[in-house]
Amino acid sequence: MSESASGEASTRTVVVAVAVNLAIAFAKGAAAALTGSAALWAETAHSLADTGNEVLLFVGLRRSGRPADERHPFGYGQERWFWAFLAAIGIFVVGGVLSIDEGVDAIRHPKPLTNVPVGVGVLVVSLALEALSWRTAHAQLREEARARRRSLAEHVRSASDPTATTVLLEDSAAIVGIGLALGALVLHWATGWTGWDAGASILIGLLLVGVAFLVARRSKGLLIDESPPPDVLERLRGRIVAEPWVGAIESLTAVYIGPQRVLVMVRLLPVAEVARLPAEELMAKTYDLRASLCAVEVIADVEITLVPGADERSST
């Protein structure tokens, strides 16, 4: 999947997620007010956090698409990672902390639930809508993983675009959270014990704290110049050594400078007969290799350094 196609798919994924979570947040809020359920209040905060976070992801998508300029010669791709990191903070504070606080308050001040069938109905509809958003993010990531010949799990761990991954994690947490809230309502209704509802709210909060940690860790890794995964480096290495004049690769370094945008630095040892060619011919070969690598969409720029072989080093 090309960078432009991936960006369009990420935008579609985020737009679907925002629309779904906004509708769900209003429905859950109304149901929480009617039932008095701490778990439903936690799920309302969860959906509001998801909506706000996906707006942040959308901002990141728009800002990262700006063209390169003098101050940012490689473009603004890293903006997407910054806004994803802010989304992780939102998941932690608005979703995780508030849900745990609501659960603790329900333990300290237990209240009987009312209109439980209304809450159950809202949660069932919310589950179906969340599944729609989850399916959109999952389809995008599955297509990207197939294009890179990775498993879905490997791609989620190593993808350089955190947008769809964040939506998938949020929606997965939302589906689990709805299951917890639904179970708590039914058990409270059946047993009359308020602890089910409070416990579900705390578990939802802990679940969101875990999701926030995963999203923040991935964004942090990308923001500090993370290297592409081994499969990308191996394909790049194979493309370089396929050149008949390249004897060996002394070192190969690549770092992400944006989603699906890589800066490459390589030190090459030419074969002995090529190493003895005039400097202008060596430069021409180096230029042709650099041009062929830069033609690959994911490669932003390449710096090639020619290193003399052992015999040339000893003669100097």
Automatic annotation (TrEMBL):
<dbReference type="InterPro" id="IPR058533">
    <property type="entry name" value="Cation_efflux_TM"/>
</dbReference>
<feature type="transmembrane region" description="Helical">
    <location>
        <begin position="196"/>
        <end position="216"/>
    </location>
</feature>
<dbReference type="InterPro" id="IPR040177">
    <property type="entry name" value="SLC30A9"/>
</dbReference>
<dbReference type="Pfam" id="PF01545">
    <property type="entry name" value="Cation_efflux"/>
</dbReference>
<protein>
    <submittedName>
        <fullName>Cation diffusion facilitator family transporter</fullName>
    </submittedName>
</protein>
<feature type="transmembrane region" description="Helical">
    <location>
        <begin position="81"/>
        <end position="100"/>
    </location>
</feature>
<feature type="transmembrane region" description="Helical">
    <location>
        <begin position="167"/>
        <end position="190"/>
    </location>
</feature>
<keyword id="KW-0812">Transmembrane</keyword>
<dbReference type="InterPro" id="IPR027469">
    <property type="entry name" value="Cation_efflux_TMD_sf"/>
</dbReference>
<dbReference type="InterPro" id="IPR002524">
    <property type="entry name" value="Cation_efflux"/>
</dbReference>
<feature type="domain" description="Cation efflux protein transmembrane">
    <location>
        <begin position="14"/>
        <end position="221"/>
    </location>
</feature>
<keyword id="KW-0472">Membrane</keyword>
<keyword id="KW-0813">Transport</keyword>
<keyword id="KW-1133">Transmembrane helix</keyword>
